[in-house]
Amino acid sequence: MSRNVDTSLIIKSTSEDLIDAFVNPRTLKQWWLVEKSLIEPKVGGAYTLIWNINANGVGYVMSGSILAFNPKSQLIITNLVYINPQRPVLGPMNLTVEASTEEGLTKLYICQDGYGKGEDWDWYYDAVKKHGPWLSTT
Q1: 72 inside domain
Q2: Model's pTM, two decimal places?
Q3: In sequence order, what are the residues at sequence separation of 6 or more whose Cβ sits closer than 8 angstroms to the Cβ of residue 88?
């Protein structure tokens, strides 16, 4: 069984707005500091996020394919890989985002799974567990 990082939050928002936060380039830039992205919000669509662009190139890339997409309730990204020039390419992983609204509050469930074993995987797991933007309620 592989490790995962998951969380459930209750947020005063709509499920549509929360799913949109994961596919809207403007929102991703504000919330997750994504500098460039290519997102095709449909089943089979591309999902690529890029951070830390500078004169030497890019710092980090996360890319995968959208396995499931419902703008009101669900986003599942499969074959997700993480690229960091200082580490080997890590993947494939999955990212699941599910949202359901009831009485003005939305339960948001987020899970990244498929972590492998070894020093680089341990580093990535610890980084996501500590700094994953979805783990912050601020």
Answers
A1: yes
A2: 0.91
A3: 120
Torsional sign, CA 110, 115, 121, 122: positive
Q: In 3D, which of 37, 46, 17, 1 has the Cα closest to residue 108?
A: 17
**pLDDT per position as a tens digit, 71-124:** 999 999 999 999 999 999 999 999 999 999 988 899 999 999 999 999 999 999
Is 126 inside a domain boundary? Answer: yes
The tally of CA atoms less than 13 A away on the side-chain side of residue 93 is 27
In one-letter notation, the amino acid at residue 27 is T
**Tally of structural domains, the chain:** 1
Answer yes or no: is 58 within a domain. Answer: yes
The pLDDT of residue 77? 98
The CATH number covering residue 128 comes to 3.30.530.20
Q: Does residue 56 belong to any structural domain of this protein?
A: yes
At 46, list the tokens: 């591309």
Number of CB atoms found within 10 A of residue 19's CB:
23
Per the structure, the complete domain to which residue 38 belongs is given by 3-133
